[in-house]
Design a protein that fits this description.
By secondary structure, the chain is an alpha/beta fold. The protein folds into two domains: 6-369 and 506-557, Alkaline Phosphatase, subunit A (3-Layer(aba) Sandwich), CATH 3.40.720.10; 380-441 and 443-482, 2-Layer Sandwich (Gyrase A, domain 2), CATH 3.30.1360.150. The strands form six sheets. Strands 1, 2, 5, 6, 7, 10, 11, 20, 21 and 22 form a ten-stranded mixed β-sheet that branches. Helix 11 (310-318) runs antiparallel to helix 12 (323-346) and helix 14 (388-397) runs antiparallel to helix 16 (426-437). The protein starts with 5 loop residues before the first helix and ends in a 20-residue tail after the last helix.
């Protein structure tokens, strides 16, 4: 049975369905490719067919110099920025994880103990690559920590309760951020080996979910392996399959072929998500959803989000300059082509607005950069408070080892109770700790929460990006910006080849493509920002922008009828 949160019922109750005019698309299909850096479409374009990226590039407008303007380029931050058209300091998703001072625990962005997963026997394993390294979160999920409306919410508010809004992804945060408060979200639980939702959205599963599970697509990869799909001349990295900096994930290896193993093995569902199989399964589920829920089949506009996660997982494990990343991209192109063909057959691309972008880019693996003479290193924050400088700070302020309560990348959370007990001034301690951090190799800037609250930061690109990321209740006491090509080499409980999250160009750079009725094909090379995506969709769909939106419509993407 479909469940409506009371706040959304209040918003939509009594609103009659609004039929769209002939100039408004019947469907918004928003495709978000996790970790698709803006250059990869051109870099890995050899051998692509006509139905995926090339179809969009030939029919739509490609903003080839698009960037996120916030500092913490993580998954939930970028997804929610795309869906809300505003900065994380406003929508509230400042990081994948933040420290909750009320409970003294690390908080996962979309966790919500009030809304457990529907019919699940265990915690959802989306929050880690390695299912043996469980994050300390509840198994409940909801969008309630997103503090503004999303573009999907606005379509539902404008056109009424018959407007269908869905979000699908391997990642819970990828689905929920776009389904918003008024839609429905489904994501892949590695613990369950199936797509799940939470009681925020529904009390049970519709029959079509069981029908999809009966197809047994998840287990169909058992005993098979991942191999390159095209001849060698289509690959830049064909001769560099075995690179020593790549992560040797248990049972998967560093070189092709990568075996999926048995369906009942410990890592089977994880390996699916570390490969193109994760995207293929996601799109197949999305197609089943669209058919069963009749998405795009009436005169009331609908919104369908599909967030594809494999590029992110492959990039973390092997690095973006690897044969695996390259082949994954070519298979991603095929998967997107399959989705576009389906939408064309069932709704019609001539009545569909397609929006493609990414939540963040990607840094190169440190080992790969070293082959080019560029120094890159991993930073270990565990060693920070053992330095002589921090020993002097503890002595200066009369503090013990509890001076730093938590480092939840990119934030340092100080032990406010311990500092208060000494009578020290909090702002003074922040400034002293920030100054000490900035002396450490690998840290470019350390910006205090006190200065961010006052807006007292330099007028620089990096400082503005950190300010855009600041939320007074969720951000830490000090924001740490690492030097270019330095990063914390940990992702979801595993040491990895590459990890994003910085404000530097390689992490902020993403594509934006709009294709649909009345949109002229073009390539735009002026710099644009991802906060403009939701505002552009709102303009095309003739709704108001999301409640916190600060972006402006991209004029080149507006239809000319």
């Amino acid at each position: 049975m479909l469940k409506r949160a009371s706040c959304i019922v209040a918003l939509t109750f009594g609103i009659a369905s609004v039929a769209h005019s002939d100039t408004v698309p019947k469907l918004v299909l928003q495709i978000t490719v996790d970790q698709l850096r803006g250059d990869l479409i051109d870099r890995f374009g050899a051998g692509l067919g006509d139905g995926g990226f090339n179809r969009l590039l030939k029919s739509g407008v490609h903003f080839a110099n698009a960037h996120h303007r916030h500092a913490n380029t993580e998954t939930i931050v970028g997804h929610t920025t795309l869906s809300t058209g505003t900065d994380p300091g406003i929508h509230g998703m400042v990081a994948n994880l933040w420290f909750d001072r009320d409970t003294g625990t690390t908080f996962y962005n979309v966790q919500d103990p009030d809304y457990p997963l529907v019919g699940a026997s265990g915690v959802d394993a989306d929050t880690e690559i390695d299912p043996t390294q469980r994050a300390a979160t509840t198994d409940g999920r909801s969008p309630r920590n997103i503090l503004t409306s999303t573009i999907g919410d606005e379509i539902r508010l404008h056109y009424g309760p018959e407007a269908k809004v869905f979000g699908v992804s391997v990642k819970d945060r990828g689905a929920i951020s776009f389904a918003g408060h008024a839609g429905q979200a489904y994501w892949f639980s590695k613990a369950e080996g199936r797509f799940v939702t939470s009681t925020f959205y529904r009390d049970d599963y519709p029959a079509w979910v069981s029908d999809w599970e009966a197809k047994n697509m998840v287990n169909s990869y058992a005993g098979w392996d991942w191999r390159p799909m095209l001849p060698s001349e289509n690959y830049v990295f064909w001769e560099k399959d075995d690179q020593p900096w790549e992560t040797d994930f248990p049972g998967f290896g560093r070189t092709f072929p990568h075996p999926y193993g048995a369906a009942d093995s410990k890592y089977y569902t994880t390996l699916l998500t570390l490969s193109p199989a994760g995207d293929e399964i996601t799109v197949d589920f999305a197609k089943t959803l669209m058919t069963a829920e009749e998405v795009g089949q009436d005169d009331v506009p609908d919104f369908m989000s599909v967030s594809l996660s494999s590029t992110d997982y492959v990039g973390h494990i092997f690095g973006p300059s690897s044969l695996e990343a390259e082949d994954n991209f070519k298979r991603l192109d095929q998967t997107i082509a399959d989705l576009l063909d389906f939408v064309d057959d069932t709704v019609g691309l001539d009545e569909t607005l397609v929006v493609l972008s990414s939540d963040h880019g990607a840094p190169e693996a440190a080992g790969y950069l070293a082959t080019l003479g560029i120094e890159a290193q991993a930073f270990n924050f565990d060693d920070v408070d053992t330095t002589p400088g921090f020993a002097r700070l503890r002595e200066r302020f009369g503090l013990g080892q509890e001076m730093i309560e938590s480092f939840t990348n990119p934030y340092v959370y100080l032990d406010r109770d311990a500092i208060k007990a000494t009578g020290a001034d909090m702002a003074e301690v922040e400034e002293a700790v920030a100054a000490e951090l900035q002396q450490l190799p690998g840290i470019a800037f350390a910006i205090t929460g006190s200065s961010l609250r006052r807006g007292d930061v330099p007028d620089t690109v990096i400082a503005r990006a950190v300010l855009a990321n600041y939320h007074p209740d969720r951000s830490g006491d000090i924001y740490v910006v690492f030097e270019p090509h330095w990063f914390v080499a940990e992702f979801d409980g595993l040491t990895v080849a590459s990890a994003h999250g910085s404000p530097w160009t390689y992490d902020s750079y993403v594509p934006i493509i709009f294709a649909g009725p009345g949109i002229a094909a073009d390539r735009v090379d002026r710099r644009v920002e991802t906060i403009d995506v939701a505002a552009t969709i709102a303009s095309i769909m003739r709704t108001k922008p999301p409640s916190g939106a600060v972006g402006l419509p991209l004029l080149e993407a507006l239809p000319s009828y």
